[in-house]
Amino acid sequence: MAAKKVAGVLGATGSVGQRFILLLADHPDFELRVLGASPRSAGKKYIDAANWKQTDLMPKSAENIIVSDCSSANFKDCDIVFSGLDAEYAGPIEKEFVEAGIAVISNAKNYRREEDVPLVVPIVNPEHLDIIQQKLDTAKEAGKQRPGFIICISNCSTAGLVAPLKPLVDSFGPIDTLTTTTLQAISGAGFSPGVSGIDVLDNIIPYIGGEEDKMEWETKKILGSVSTDKSHVELLTPEEIKVSAQCNRVAVSDGHTECIALKFKNRPAPSVEQVKQCLRDYVCDAYKMKCHSAPEQTIHVLEQSDRPQPRLDRNRDRGYGVSVGRIREDPVLDFKMVVLSHNTIIGAAGSGVLIAEILLARNMI
Amino acid sequence: MAAKKVAGVLGATGSVGQRFILLLADHPDFELRVLGASPRSAGKKYIDAANWKQTDLMPKSAENIIVSDCSSANFKDCDIVFSGLDAEYAGPIEKEFVEAGIAVISNAKNYRREEDVPLVVPIVNPEHLDIIQQKLDTAKEAGKQRPGFIICISNCSTAGLVAPLKPLVDSFGPIDTLTTTTLQAISGAGFSPGVSGIDVLDNIIPYIGGEEDKMEWETKKILGSVSTDKSHVELLTPEEIKVSAQCNRVAVSDGHTECIALKFKNRPAPSVEQVKQCLRDYVCDAYKMKCHSAPEQTIHVLEQSDRPQPRLDRNRDRGYGVSVGRIREDPVLDFKMVVLSHNTIIGAAGSGVLIAEILLARNMI
Amino acid sequence: MAAKKVAGVLGATGSVGQRFILLLADHPDFELRVLGASPRSAGKKYIDAANWKQTDLMPKSAENIIVSDCSSANFKDCDIVFSGLDAEYAGPIEKEFVEAGIAVISNAKNYRREEDVPLVVPIVNPEHLDIIQQKLDTAKEAGKQRPGFIICISNCSTAGLVAPLKPLVDSFGPIDTLTTTTLQAISGAGFSPGVSGIDVLDNIIPYIGGEEDKMEWETKKILGSVSTDKSHVELLTPEEIKVSAQCNRVAVSDGHTECIALKFKNRPAPSVEQVKQCLRDYVCDAYKMKCHSAPEQTIHVLEQSDRPQPRLDRNRDRGYGVSVGRIREDPVLDFKMVVLSHNTIIGAAGSGVLIAEILLARNMI
Amino acid sequence: MAAKKVAGVLGATGSVGQRFILLLADHPDFELRVLGASPRSAGKKYIDAANWKQTDLMPKSAENIIVSDCSSANFKDCDIVFSGLDAEYAGPIEKEFVEAGIAVISNAKNYRREEDVPLVVPIVNPEHLDIIQQKLDTAKEAGKQRPGFIICISNCSTAGLVAPLKPLVDSFGPIDTLTTTTLQAISGAGFSPGVSGIDVLDNIIPYIGGEEDKMEWETKKILGSVSTDKSHVELLTPEEIKVSAQCNRVAVSDGHTECIALKFKNRPAPSVEQVKQCLRDYVCDAYKMKCHSAPEQTIHVLEQSDRPQPRLDRNRDRGYGVSVGRIREDPVLDFKMVVLSHNTIIGAAGSGVLIAEILLARNMI
């Protein structure tokens, strides 16, 4: 049995950081050793620095780790660093880490739009990691030191949206038009302060800053393909796919619900039953690679008329599975359906950990 | 000053019935005299029969009315009867009332699809009442007794949807495509038992039985036109307008939020600013007729990025005004926007009362 | 008809300040002229400075007032100033106002424990204002300029607690023991950020910093009496009354529910029916003085087994009335009951306005 | 390894029944074989009969069990039957089971007040099962057939209340006075329909029918002792302990929060630190007996000022552990504190399963 890889977490006291810590505790492949946070927390034991707000207890193994500040020197022994930093801070810190030769998987939005940075939903487009492989190979061939790199986790609501699209595109060809209206959980907004109680009690906030643009843009990158020279991702063009998102914040703790509709380019479109079967049959590469966290069933197709529901269905396959229900014909496009994904697992920290497992399976870390 | 018209309420102990009673208390045009409910309640004082669950106290004037059973004989002195009956019971009861020569405004779905029954959102298509006018005129000319009739209130979520469409169609021509994803309040489902608490706490129910079909169909009737002979409503055809609805139940007490998108038939489409101005300028006929409950501002166009919100905006113009926000271009259709309407006022009992006020203004009762 | 008194509001952009503004709009006795806020807001129109989050629209009359900073010079024409300042800022600002001769009614906690500052729940202990009267008279007799003064509004949960106690003590003598467990609304915590959504969704926070101590202490002051020389309030001693509070934050927007129990000193204790009758019969002095906002029915005694409920009962008498239900014998003390009060009306801004109306009725401003 | 005991569940389609099924799936000691429900469900596969509303999927092993009706003949091979029947039906059905010689553990209230029926919270008073042992022994000695019997699970809110009392009484002697105000979750009310959404959204229901009386009475039985002849339980008398409960329903899915206060009979009372240490040190008998479901830590004493919270703390020790926080001196009694227990685990089905494990450990089934 191979020694575990050494892992670090940036932004360890925040909401995403706490989730990384939970997912890495007792992980068969990784050993969490370094926790980075703001200077205010640095120097304290993690148990004293963090305002722990998870339903699972803080792992014993994390309690006594002394929090570091976020400079790469403190993480130089890490094989992989997971960043849960806020976008406000992530930019220069993550850049410094990459320059220091560190492998970073980031939940922040800062580098998602760099053309040579893979934007990865691990149950959807792990092949975009070929760009990193190419960098590593090039450096190796040139006799250079192993370079640092960054891989971005997608926006939480984008992850749920693209999950069912991947197998559909593989089976039935490109999507011409895609619309989604989201009902997003509040955990995605963190908790200091996150979404105000008075804003979600008996209420809907029909707006999440920047979210619609992220969804419309990121979908084009995730469904795009790696360039022939493996140097960058080629986005789908606005001509290739039209995407429209409307985003709402609702009084749900975890689990983003999306009412989506889509139209294929090819005619005739598949049947409802073909769409369902295609989704049911999908096995993501990460599962084939036997990654520890990969979902056994990537897409759960639900037949009950009133499902998926966030409280009941968000934890399928420990939050790594995506649930799709109400698949039916649409009077405007071809199909409409409801997609539910766990925003802090497949939509954030969980994706980060599964990406790391893929890197490991591919010997990239 | 004219004597008040005598009003009755069917289904008086239910959720919709209670709202009718509140809206008719101290009404300048109507005097509530008869309350009909199930045999279980009949014979009791209303205060003893009803499980009153409104935020306003039961009107003193209603407390001591002895509840009748729902036969037309008890309502023969009524100039107008408002029906809040459940669909399960409404069919034969309302039919019996009409046959007995009574004017009925019903919130039930049973007769909405009859071609000679107007389906009216009073701030949108009061001209559909011409069908009733024609019936009354015909009977009068023939020297027959004044006939009974039924007018249907639209489905609650349809009311909010069509409100902004009316002025847009008037100004910019027909709509080619219309999509809506709703986030609907629980008050619409009544309260015995209505929506279960465990179903909406930290949850979304992505399904409301029959609702999507109602929205798609009723829109075509409400935006349709009265036939030349005023005998029936001519629905928009599926070729004239494509409509798709996705309906969700959320943890909101009152106020349906809808994320809609639409495309006009005519090119070029208007600008965002033209759309806003058109909505702001709209004055509904009921207001022009000086109906008591008509909204001063029919459509409230909100400029803040995160509005409308149900808790904050549902009570504009006492629930008779509709709020529209986030009007912006859509990458798929022409525009997307968020519409908020008060489901128990403009979406149910309130519409019923305003329809009656229009009937009165037109001397139809 | 007398000219309206000129009013100002400190902390005008905050949650309490917004409520003051709503209550003062169209007030028959006061004209709102000056709005004070932080330097960040000063110089802007109120409509541009405030993040308005009320269910009623911002009063037209407030929209274009230019926000001032919080120095007394800007408020020198005010007959009365209402302070909704956070405790963090209220101390020196309110002090400076009083020294400048201004009459201040404050919602902040800073001066509540000063023995010569009345802590007033206007439906309970307006007679504590005698201390201010004495100050005014003394200055007048001495030929001095009219002095500034401060009157404190009680803590929101204390207001609801003491409301039914006042008539009970008046009728049945002193209370020996009092316990309360509160279920408090989130609006009391303001909204920037206030209570976090994730903290109240599917959750209870069984702690509100400082609240239990405030309730236990303030009760002793409000139920205490003015000293013979009218110089200060004499608190009830721990020997005179034992008070214990347990405070919880719950997912309610407005309205504090309290499960209270109490024991009288005198034996035999009154009967349940006597307690109910005493509460029903209570008419607060402010109502007798014909103050504009005073509740017609101070205490609403509810007989239904499952009332009061915050959503249904918080708006009795526009939030100035207090609802009491489930009055029954207690196996431990004499009685237990449920008390509901509107935390932002009788528990905060509304009390401030009613205190000002009492001052006016007494010719003290 | 011994063969598993055969288990049945009555009321299998209901909320409590579903929880029993989840807890019994993959249980090392029990094999679930018989599911009983109403005639409406009998004859169907469980997957077709149940409206499954748990966050965990229906166990595969239960899906295809054909639902029986609730007559003992169908359960004659069961070593133990768990009843989740509604009180409306439980009376005669459970009686018939006992007469047929079957061992029943019931969540219904019907037989709790029978003096020879143990009312057991398994982490508190398993010694009350001696009454059953005595019955079994007597029958055996008399050469009679093994008799049926019934053991009652306590009311959900009582379970949480008595959990910390047990070790306190053991260490510091009897309790003189006990008060509790509950904030109870809605899952306890089942889901067809259970608590209505409109009743708990932005609201509190300050009343749960019969609950206060149950808590006051059941506490006296659970803390009482088995008679010398082991024929019945001797309740604490009203003179021995005064108990007062006030019960509220709040918008929480699972987890009852209780604000309790208590006074010991003995003087001097222990210190806060002694109380905490006593609770921390408590190891319930079921854990000592190595029962599968017994909590490793029976009482979790929390030091953070704002804990326990239902969303964060209800799942300690899989819902079998009880959390206690804010232990502090009380100005009226000796101590006040906040207790949180999982109402469907230690407060209902979970207790039933743990009682069965104790029966097995004692060779009573």
From TrEMBL, chains A, B, C, D:
What name has this protein been given in UniProt?
Answer: Aspartate-semialdehyde dehydrogenase
Keyword S-adenosyl-L-methionine (UniProt)? no
Family as reported in the entry's similarity comment: Belongs to the aspartate-semialdehyde dehydrogenase family.
Q: Which InterPro entries match?
A: ASADH-related, Asp-semialdehyde_DH_CS, Asp_semi-ald_DH_pep-lack, NAD(P)-bd_dom_sf, Semialdehyde_DH_NAD-bd, Semialdhyde_DH_dimer_dom
Instruction: Supply the alphabetized keyword list.
Output: Amino-acid biosynthesis, Methionine biosynthesis, NADP, Oxidoreductase, Threonine biosynthesis
Q: What GO molecular functions are on record for this protein?
A: aspartate-semialdehyde dehydrogenase activity; NAD binding; NADP binding; protein dimerization activity
Pathway involvement?
Amino-acid biosynthesis; L-threonine biosynthesis; L-threonine from L-aspartate: step 2/5; Amino-acid biosynthesis; L-methionine biosynthesis via de novo pathway; L-homoserine from L-aspartate: step 2/3
The active-site annotation reads 156, 256
Note the CDD domains from the entry: ASADH_C_arch_fung_like (cd18130), ScASADH_like_N (cd02315)
> What positions does the domain Semialdehyde dehydrogenase NAD-binding occupy?
6-132
Catalytic activity field: L-aspartate 4-semialdehyde + phosphate + NADP(+) = 4-phospho-L-aspartate + NADPH + H(+)
Which Gene Ontology BP terms does the record give?
lysine biosynthetic process via diaminopimelate; methionine biosynthetic process; threonine biosynthetic process
| EC number(s) reported in the record | 1.2.1.11
Q: Does Nucleus show up as a keyword for this record?
A: no
- Source species, domain of life: Eukaryota
**What is the enzyme's main class?**
oxidoreductase
Q: What SUPFAM superfamilies does UniProt report for this protein, alphabetically?
A: Glyceraldehyde-3-phosphate dehydrogenase-like, C-terminal domain, NAD(P)-binding Rossmann-fold domains
